[in-house]
Design a protein that fits this description.
The structure holds 2 protein chains of 2 kinds. Chain A is mainly beta. Chain A contains no helices and 11 strands. In chain A, 0% of the residues lie in helices and 54% in strands. In chain A, strands 2, 4, 5, 6, 9, 10 and 11 form a 7-stranded mixed β-sheet that branches. The N and C termini of chain A lie far apart (36 Å). In chain A, 36% of the residues are buried. By secondary structure, chain B is an all-beta fold. Helix content of chain B is 0%, strand content 50%. Chain B is built from no helices and 12 strands. In chain B, strand 5 and strand 6 form a beta hairpin. The N and C termini of chain B lie far apart (41 Å). The chains are: A mainly beta, B mainly beta. Chains A and B meet through strand 5, strand 9 and strand 10 of A and strand 6 of B.
C-alpha cells in the first residue's frame, strides 16, 4: 500500500523565494496534518485538516505560511517569502476519522533556506 | 496542558543490551499513549500504543505498560539490535486529533 507521499524530499533555495511543499495522503484518510521538526523545538504541529477543511491553524508561525487542501488527495504548504529560520524538516501525516487514530507520516521534506 | 516528558538522550548501547526509555505524562484525564519511532531519513512510524490503564502495548520486541499510578509509559526492549538505532518519541493526544510529542530520545546500538 502506498503511504503518505511528500515532495520534494529536499529543497534548497535562497531567502525571499516562495517555497511550496506537497503532500498526498493515504487514500481514505479524512485527516491531514502538517508538522515541522527542528533540533531546537522538536516536532510542532502547524495545521490540520478534516475532509479538506482547515480545523486548527494555531501552530502556523506567521502569515508567511499558508496551507491548502483543494481535494482529498492533495495538500500544499507554502512559505512566501522564505527566511533562513524556516529551515527544517516538514512532515505531512494522515489518519482515519475516530478518536486517537494513529497518524501515518511521510518521509518529510528537508528544507534549507540560504 | 496535557503533555509528555521523556528522558533525554542520546543513549548508546551494545547489541543485545536491555533498553529502557522513560516517559511520564501530565493529563487531566486518562489519555491514550503512544510510542513512535523515526529511523534515519524517514518519517515517524507508530511503534505501539495503549489506550487505558494497565494496558501493555507491544511490537517488534518493544513493550510499554500504561501505569496510571506513576503516570508513566516507559518503553523497554530486552535485547536490542543495530537496526533499532533510531529516535523514539513518546506522545499523547491533547484532544481527539492533536498529538503532543516528547522531545525524542536518540538511541544508537553498536555491534
Amino acid at each position: 500500500d502506498a503511504g503518505v507521499i511528500q515532495s520534494p524530499r529536499h529543497e534548497v533555495t535562497e531567502m525571499g523565494q516562495e517555497v511550496t511543499l506537497r503532500c498526498k495522503p493515504i487514500s481514505g484518510h479524512d485527516y491531514l496534518f502538517w508538522y515541522r521538526q527542528t533540533m531546537m523545538r522538536g516536532l510542532e504541529l502547524l495545521i490540520y485538516f478534516n475532509n479538506n477543511v482547515p480545523i486548527d491553524d494555531s501552530g502556523m508561525p506567521e502569515d508567511r505560511f499558508s496551507a491548502k487542501m483543494p481535494n482529498a488527495s492533495f495538500s500544499t504548504l507554502k512559505i512566501q517569502p522564505s527566511e533562513p529560520r524556516d529551515s527544517a524538516v516538514y512532515f505531512c501525516a494522515s489518519s482515519f476519522s475516530g478518536r486517537y487514530q494513529p497518524q501515518h507520516f511521510g518521509d518529510g521534506t528537508r528544507l534549507s533556506i540560504l | 496542558g496535557d503533555s509528555v516528558t521523556q528522558m533525554e538522550g542520546p543513549v548508546t548501547l551494545s547489541e543485545e543490551a536491555f533498553l529502557t526509555i522513560n516517559c511520564t505524562y501530565t493529563a487531566t484525564g486518562y489519555p491514550s499513549l503512544f510510542w513512535y519511532v523515526q529511523y534515519p531519513g524517514e518519517g515517524l512510524q507508530l511503534l505501539l500504543k495503549a489506550t487505558k490503564a494497565d494496558d501493555k502495548g507491544s511490537n517488534k520486541g518493544f513493550e510499554a505498560t500504561y501505569r496510571k499510578e506513576t503516570t508513566s509509559f516507559h518503553l523497554e526492549k530486552g535485547s536490542v539490535q543495530v537496526s533499532d538505532s533510531a529516535v523514539y518519541f513518546c506522545a499523547l493526544y491533547i484532544n481527539d486529533y492533536k498529538l503532543s510529542f516528547g522531545a525524542g530520545t536518540t538511541v544508537t546500538v553498536r555491534a
